[in-house]
Design a protein that fits this description.
Strand order of the largest sheet: 3-4-5-10-7-6
Strand content: 35-45%
Helix content: 25-40%
Order of helices and strands: HEHEEHEEEEEEEEHEEHEEEEEEEHHEE
Number of helices: 7
Distance between the termini: 79 Å
Largest sheet: 6 strands, antiparallel, barrel
Structural class: alpha+beta
Shape: flat
Radius of gyration: 35 Å
Number of strands: 22
């Protein structure tokens, strides 16, 4: 009996270890499956839930002699004074404390009358600075020409400019600034969520796989075939009967769902700054690379030939330039480069020991040879 008890205890210990092993395995497996999962609200937008841009022309007054000097601003001042009942000839106005500006703002989704947002103010004339200025009442219009908001208030440039007579000190860009909460919305934008009994979701980055997975996840959550993929950008959702009077609740449920995002294989290159960004799905077929640098150095030295003390009076000092030109080319050896994972690609490219500028040339050559299994995007 004692032997049987010992064997049973050993079996229980082994079974407990097996159970713990499988629990850890499934935990790791589930965590790896959700590595690329993101919420729908982070990768897509619902139809109508978007910002709208506004623009308007205005005047900034109260500047310390750093305003516009052109006739266009003087005409703007005359027009403003005429609306206030004062007729003034623009040619009689000599003001350096006023600047013509363009005022822009973004309407948030579903704006309501009385809501305040920030305004961006930028000069369009030869004004040097908006420091200390105040934006006068400016109507802001949409693309349809209708007024949706009004802007007014002190301008904050977030810096300063000082000095004179060629010696100036400047911080940030004084020719543009912000009016914090200087825009008051006066008109709502007409839009009804779920118009026609349907909702549409637009992916920020079109992709067939991601759109299909999104529709599948939504159908599993709603327990029915409510979501349909229209194209790589759009997923159409038929509103269930129980949510016809609670569309906000439906959107809240949908936007919190996690979807596996299928990222494309892409390499982004910025030639102006020498920045290279390599995506996770990028692959490089086995290839050999030889890369060498050619350096040409031109050096000029000036030697002075000065006559001696007993030289004739007509003798002059002569400056003789001496130019040396040399060219150096580094030796290049073939290096095998390949990679299945992002880490392997980074290690292989780092082994070349090249600069970011050279890296751009190498990636372009890899793409031309067909070894780079990714899209090359140059910005």
């Amino acid at each position: 009996m004692a032997i049987l008890r010992i064997q049973n205890s050993k079996l229980k210990i082994q079974n407990s270890r097996i159970i713990k092993f499988f629990l850890i395995f499934f935990f790791i497996l589930s965590s790896t499956l959700t590595v690329n999962a993101e919420r729908i609200k982070d990768i897509a937008d619902f139809e109508g839930v978007r910002e709208n841009q506004l623009i308007g022309y205005g005047l900034v007054v109260g500047l310390d002699g750093s305003g516009d000097k052109g006739n266009a601003t003087m005409q703007g001042i005359a027009n403003m004074l005429q609306k206030m009942g004062l007729n003034v000839n623009p040619n009689d106005i000599k003001a350096k404390n006023t600047a013509s500006v363009m005022v822009t703002a973004n309407l948030p989704p579903f704006p309501k009358a009385g809501t305040k947002v920030d305004a961006l103010v930028s000069t369009i004339g030869d004004a040097k600075s908006l420091q200390g200025g105040t934006l006068l009442l400016t109507p802001l219009k949409g693309p349809d020409g209708k007024i949706y908001a009004l802007a007014q208030g002190p301008v904050s440039i977030g810096g300063f400019v000082g000095g004179g007579a060629g010696n100036t000190v400047q911080k940030n860009h004084p020719a543009s600034g912000k009016v914090p909460e200087g825009v008051i919305i006066e008109k709502d934008l007409p839009f009804i969520l779920g118009n026609g009994g349907d909702l549409r979701i637009f992916l920020k980055r079109p992709d067939f796989t991601t759109a299909s997975d999104m529709a599948k996840v939504i159908n599993e959550e709603l327990k029915g075939g409510y979501a349909v993929t229209i194209d790589p950008t759009t997923v159409k959702i038929r509103i269930p009967d129980e949510y016809l009077k609670n569309i906000v609740g439906l959107i809240t449920k949908i936007e919190s769902l996690d979807v596996n995002v299928d990222t494309p294989a892409i390499v982004v290159i910025n030639e102006r700054t020498g920045t290279v960004v390599i995506g996770e799905k990028v692959r490089i077929a086995p290839v050999a690379i030889a890369h060498g640098n050619l350096t040409i150095e031109i050096k000029t030295e000036y030697k002075v030939s000065q006559p001696s003390s007993f030289a004739p009076e007509k003798a002059e000092t002569v400056v003789v330039p001496k130019t040396e030109v040399s060219a150096k080319e580094q030796k290049a050896s073939l290096i095998q480069v390949s990679g299945v994972t992002l880490g392997e690609i980074v290690r292989a490219l780092n082994a070349l020991g090249v600069t970011p500028r050279d890296m751009i040339s190498i990636l372009q050559a890899l793409k031309a040879s067909g070894a780079l299994r990714a899209e090359l995007e140059i910005i």
